[in-house]
Each structure stands twice: as structure tokens, then as C-alpha cells.
Design goal:
alpha/beta, Rossmann fold, 2 domains, seven-stranded parallel beta sheet, 13 strands, globular
């Protein structure tokens, strides 16, 4: 039987043109499709436009799933609020993904699984059946949820042991994962792993005039992300109030905290524009219009932090002056603070000081923006896509 290309498993993927949900999975597949004919297995959703799936240069196979689990506020947030129905729903999702993938397994050359759950678990089962090489691409949320309890840690270890190529989006995530692995197994897993954030279309986020966004003098600050606790939009609002600076805040994103953030802006007298969910095409425009981007992420009470935020890569590509909380993979992406200003998570006073520093020093803003823009070049999808594809292809040959 003629082989087509890799089988890609993902729990998130764009549902229509411009949809940002799982956009990096789409870019990964576009890179793969230049050399092979991959097949994607991903969840269905009421917002899916069939014409979008058909127009892709690869096959898209959707599987049904229970509502309110993977799309919406994001998998980890939905899991945290899943209650007693969480585990039955998880079992249904894994079974549904596996059933959708099985008919396409005979023509696959390899398996790539984005996220540990459900993709990694299903990918491990498919490898047992087929003997195909397995690539795990671990983004953070699912891994950190699995590390919270013994059954999850045992399942994660088994997954890592079965993978041929393990991609962590940050060194911080790999280090935290390895802490849960017995010493005798760490070196083997370490030798199969590498650090690789997902890519960014650097040219798309660069201003037409070649000037970094940080050089603009319009005193606008951008927050781009879901309005959920881990993103820390409330921290930014409080810091802006404390700074006393004449900034105009744009909050781009939706989520369950939106009413709370709106009330907080009113309470603290912060001028804010709630832009709502922003599609993939509009995102680049927004980054190019704002000289300062703030990533105020926090560490949750269960220890979960950001992996390698896509919005941070996009801000770097636009040449924004970046102010970010020092948690998760942020420090390594900003080259230990060389490409942006770092503050202690949830330290509103420190963030307020950095906002004033950026407001008062245009030279500093521009210098940081130029450095960030240069650093973003190594995360361009032309490089990341090639590296993601090439390693697994060697296992398949």
C-alpha cells in the first residue's frame, strides 16, 4: 500500500479562515505538506466551516467530541472546571480520536501528536498497533495537569518512553517534566528530546516601513490572550492604575474573566478598549500598531505556568517593546531579558515601574524592539517547520 505522509493528532485546529485557535498546528501541517501528504485528526465543532477544511493542502479528518472540553476557554481551563464528568469525557475524546485515526494508519509514515492529551495518549496506542515512529510535541498545559497526580505522572512517563522524538516548547517545561522521571530513565528521555517553541510568520508581523513597533509614539499598550486567570490581565490593569502614566490599553481576547476585567478597569480608572477575539489576520495589524506589549502571566496555585506563548513570539516579530512576567518559558524566549523587560509574576508595583520606564524612554523602547525583532528570526516557520519535519522523517526512512 502506498504511503502518503505523517498522521498528525491535535486537540485544536482552526475552524474557519482567520481562526486563531490551533493556528500553529495549521502552519506545522503546511510545512509538512511541502514534502509529503499529511493527514490531520482533530475535533469537530459547531463553528467549523467545511469549505475551510476542504481547501487545505492536506487531509483534515474531524471527530465528534462532547461540548465544552477542548475549544472555548482552552483545554486546561475546561479540564479544571470539568467536575465529575471530566474522566468520562476524556475517555470518549481519546476513543473518538483513535477511531478517526485508525482508517488512515496503514498509509501513514509516522505519527506527530500535539499535546500530551489526548494526542500523546492516542499516538502511543497507534504506535503500539503500527510500529510507526512517534513524535510528541508538548506545549505545557496537558503536561502540567498530568504532573499533578501519580496516575498522570505514570502515564506521562510511559508516553515519553514510547516516543522517538520529543519536542518541548521550552526548557522550563522539559526541566519540570524530567523532575517527575526516575533518574535511571532521565538520560534516555533527555537524549530523545529537544527544545523548540512553535514558529511565527516573522514577515507577516513586520511593519511595512521596516520600523519596529516599539518606535511608535502613540502610548498604546497591547494585551493579547484569553481572559482567564493564568494570563493575568487583572495584574496589568492594577499596574497601569498604579503607574499613573497616560497609557491607552487594548485588551484583545475573550474569556470568562471579561466581566471582571471590565469592572476592574472601571474601578481603577484605566482607559481600555476591549477588542474581543481577534482573527489571525487582524492580530498582525494590532501588534504593528502598539509600541508596548505586556504579558502579565501568573503561576497558578497548582503550579501551572505558560509554556512558550505564541503572542510573545508575535510581539517579538513585530518589534514591540515587551514587558513580561518571568515565569514558564518566557525568560529563555527573551534571552534572559536581553530582548524585553522582566518582572516578578503578580508584582504590580514592579510592573508599574517598568511601564513608566518604557513610557519615559523612547530610546530604550526602540532598542528592545529591535533586539526582539532580530531574535524572532530564528523562530520563523521556515526554520521551525523544516526542523520539526526533518527529524521525524529520518526515523521514518
Amino acid at each position: 500500500m502506498r504511503k502518503n505522509g505523517r498522521l498528525v493528532l491535535a486537540s485544536s485546529f482552526p475552524r474557519f479562515e482567520g481562526d486563531y485557535v490551533g493556528a500553529f498546528v495549521a502552519r506545522h501541517l503546511e510545512c509538512c505538506s511541502q514534502r509529503e501528504a499529511p493527514t490531520l485528526i482533530c475535533p469537530d465543532d459547531k463553528k467549523v466551516e467545511k469549505s475551510f477544511d476542504i481547501s487545505r493542502p492536506y487531509r483534515v479528518v474531524r471527530f465528534p467530541l462532547p461540548p465544552g472540553v477542548l475549544y472555548g476557554d482552552g483545554g486546561p481551563e475546561n479540564v479544571r472546571s470539568g467536575g465529575a464528568l471530566l474522566y468520562p469525557r476524556a475517555a470518549v475524546i481519546c476513543a473518538s480520536m483513535a477511531a478517526a485515526a485508525l482508517p488512515h494508519l496503514p498509509r501513514a509514515t509516522a505519527i506527530s501528536a500535539h499535546w500530551a492529551l489526548p494526542g500523546g495518549l492516542v499516538g502511543m496506542a497507534l504506535k503500539k498497533i503500527s510500529g510507526l515512529p512517534l513524535q510528541l510535541i508538548l506545549h505545557g498545559g496537558a503536561v502540567q495537569l498530568m504532573l499533578k497526580n501519580l496516575p498522570g505522572r505514570m502515564l506521562l512517563r510511559r508516553m515519553l518512553q514510547n516516543a522517538d522524538d520529543i519536542v518541548f516548547v521550552s526548557e522550563a517545561l522539559r526541566n519540570r517534566t524530567l523532575e517527575a522521571i526516575p533518574h535511571a530513565q532521565r538520560q534516555t528521555i533527555l537524549s530523545r528530546s529537544r527544545i523548540m517553541p512553535m514558529g511565527v510568520d516573522a514577515g507577516q508581523f513586520r511593519r511595512p516601513d521596516g520600523m519596529p513597533a516599539a518606535a511608535l509614539e502613540n502610548r498604546r499598550i497591547l494585551f493579547m490572550g484569553r481572559l482567564v486567570p493564568i494570563k493575568g490581565a487583572d495584574v496589568l490593569v492594577q499596574a497601569l492604575s498604579a503607574s499613573g502614566g497616560d497609557w491607552k490599553l487594548t485588551l484583545a481576547g475573550e474569556g470568562p474573566q471579561k466581566p471582571y476585567i471590565k469592572d476592574l478597569c472601571e474601578e481603577y480608572g484605566v482607559k481600555a478598549d476591549f477588542a474581543g477575539a481577534v482573527d489571525y489576520r487582524r492580530r498582525a495589524e494590532m501588534f504593528r500598531e502598539h509600541p508596548v506589549f505586556v504579558l502579565p502571566s501568573r503561576r497558578l496555585s497548582d503550579g501551572r505556568v505558560e509554556g512558550a506563548p505564541q503572542a510573545l513570539l508575535e510581539a517579538m516579530a513585530a518589534g514591540a517593546c515587551i514587558i513580561a512576567a518571568d515565569c514558564g518559558g518566557v525568560r529563555e524566549m527573551l534571552m534572559d531579558g536581553d530582548c524585553g523587560l522582566l518582572f516578578e509574576p503578580e508584582n504590580t508595583a514592579q510592573l508599574a515601574d517598568l511601564l513608566n520606564k518604557a513610557l519615559q524612554n523612547g530610546g530604550l523602547r526602540r532598542n528592545l524592539g529591535e533586539k526582539a525583532q532580530r531574535a524572532a528570526q530564528k523562530f520563523d516557520w521556515k526554520i521551525i517547520g523544516r526542523d520539526l519535519s526533518a527529524t521525524l522523517r529520518r526515523f521514518a526512512e
